[in-house]
Each structure stands twice: as C-alpha cells, then as structure tokens.
Amino acid sequence: MRFSLLTLLLVAICCETLAAEKPEVQLRDPWESEYSGEDATGKHVIALWDFKPGAQTKDASGHGHDFTLEDAKINPAGRFGSCLESFRGWPVEDKRHRAAVKNHPALTPKGPFTIEMWINPKPELDAEYPSAILFDKKYVSHNDYQWVLGQPDRSGARAMQMNLGFGFDSSSFHSQPAKYEPGAWRHIAFTYDGEGTGSFFLDGKPWGSRQVAGRKSVVAGGHNLFIGDRVGSLYHGFPGLIDQVRLSSGVRRFGRVQFQRTSDRSCFVRMEPEARVSFSVTNLQREPLVEGVVTISLDGIARKQFKLPKLDPGATTPIDYPIDTSLRPNPYRLIARLNIPGPKPHQSEQAFPVRIVPRRPADRFPVVMWGGASGDMEQLKRI
Predict the structure, then answer these.
(1) What is the rounded CA–CA span in Å between residue 318 and residue 296?
(2) CA distance linking residue 206 with residue 309, whole number of Å
(3) What are the two backbone dihedrals, phi and then psi, of residue 262, each rounded to the nearest 5 degrees?
(4) Which of 275, 287, 294, 300 holds its CA 20 to 30 A away from the CA of 372?
(5) For 55-79, what is each residue's pLDDT tens digit?
(6) What is the rounded distance in angstroms from the CA atom of residue 248 to the CA atom of residue 23?
(7) 147 with 115: CB under 8 angstroms?
(8) What is the pTM of this model?
C-alpha cells in the first residue's frame, strides 16, 4: 500500500511538473479593432497613440509619451475615429510634417519589440514620390530605428524597410512589395526578436523576414521619436493618414493561425513508401476556430484537403500529408492553404520546400559516414 501511494505521488508530481513546463501559447493581438484594456495599457505596451477626440496628442498607454504636432494635423476621418495626417515633403517641399515624441529610454526597447500602425495613403503617394518615412528615431545615426515605405517599383508597389542601429553599424530589413492604394486602410507591423530576426506583417499576414547573425538589442540614441516623417531633412513624410500606432515590448502575433512543419525531413527518394510530412495547426485567435479547412499540394499536384476539428484558443491539431513519391525527381513547393469561413472569413497560404530525388542504382556503392554516438544510425537513416 505504501509503495502504491508513493508511486501515485511521484506520478502526480511528474505530471504537474510537465504541465508547468508546457509553454503557454501567445494568442494574437486583436489588431482589426480599436485597442482597449490590456491591449492598450498592459505591461507589454510601451506607448499607444490612438488620436482619440479630446486626447488627440496623448499616449493612451498611460506612460506619458505624449506628442506635439509639427506641421501635421489631426484628421477626424481615422480608422477608429480621429487620426494623424501627414503630408509630402521633398522633392515637393523640404518641410517637416510629423508628430514629435520627446526622447525617453523606454522608447528604445531592450530585446524583442514590435511596432505597428494603420496607414491610408493619399493620392499624393504617387509614382513620382520617393520613399516615405513612417516612424523615425534613428535618422543617419547607428542607433535606434527608422521605418520607411520604400520608393515604388515599375508596377507602383512599395516594400517596407526597417533600419535598426546597433551602435557601431546598422542593419536593414525589407518586406515583400505591395501596392498601397489611396483611400484604403492597411495594417502594417514589424517585429524584432532581439536576436537578429526582423519580420514584417501586412494585414496580419507574414510579409517578409530576414535574420542577421550576431545581432542583439538595438542601441539607444539621443533623437526624439517622430511619427509621419524623419528626424531631419531632407524631409519626405508619409502623405496620408496614420492611426493606432503602438510600440510594444516582445514579439507580438497578428496571424489567426500558426501553421508549422513538425517533421524534420524535406527530401525523399522516388517511389519511397509511406513518405509523409507532418504539420501542426494552432489556433491563435481569442475565440474558437470552427470549420477550418487546410488544402495541401505539391505545386498544385497531389492535392489533399483536411477538415480541422474545432480548436479552442491556443489548441493545436496535427496534420500528416502523404508525399506522392511517384512524381518526377524535382524540387517542389509544398503549398498549404488555410480557409476559415464565417462572418470573418480568412484565407492564407504558406510554402515549404520539398525535394524528390532519383532512386539509387543497384550497382552504386553507398556513401559511408562516421558515427558512433547513441542514436546516430537512426538519424543517418532519416537523412
């Protein structure tokens, strides 16, 4: 009896320890709506400028990072009420148009951070206008950060650029290009993980990422923070409306679902039996995910559809996709498309590289590799 009770106690302790060690899933921020509650004043929020009537120049986070207008103005036609309106500068007119926030150590986050805002261009953001500054505390120094909407390409699309200063030098991160049509509100965001990886998001979707080896936290400088234009001339501010600008510590989430490959193989031998790639789908919404459907294919071939079970917030479900190894040896893109119907429909797509290689001829000598540690043979077989 004493042995049984001791066994039960040990099992309970182990289970409790495992439960405590299981990481909590960070759910997405409700960026489509106006931030309130913990999303506006939580401990992760460094500053929030939402331009509300009666408190247009106030920091809504409560941390006192209020701003003053410098030839920009408050416009009542914002995404969530009133907003900031900025204007063109050079080469039309070398004149500043911005909101100015006094320099403070908290405005340079240590480690991971996130910057986000809503933007709505005016027709003046045309093919003749160069890059437009959205958010600047860096200028030409090697400190802090500067967020730029780059100059247009031949199709009129622009890529976002984030310049981060690390004291002695700087690194630049670029998004995929997109067209920013006049009169259309778009949510843009940038996250930095404090370890060299910067990622962009457009309307909640991943929009480009880069990893720079050896980078850590950005280094604080002495400039004030400016929204809608750069620190100094040549001034070329963003000609349009800006709303719900938020600076947060940590890497925030914006996608509704996280789709990850969990298996470690991406290369398969032609005609290999039972070849498959495993994935996990995690609901990042703050409400249950219902009737989600994932469609997976190899460049449109061998298409298979998976109906997801109801997923509570933070819940995960696995998916195993069988690889059709009878296809010709070639590199392929494994394309996963997610569709969520309902009052807030959602569609997203991710691609993963997969390769099918020719079978080894019977008269070829196999490759021999050194090994010896426990588990090496199984790992070599998988490779």
Answers:
(1) 13
(2) 24
(3) -105, -20
(4) 275
(5) 999 999 999 999 999 999 999 999 9
(6) 21
(7) yes
(8) 0.83
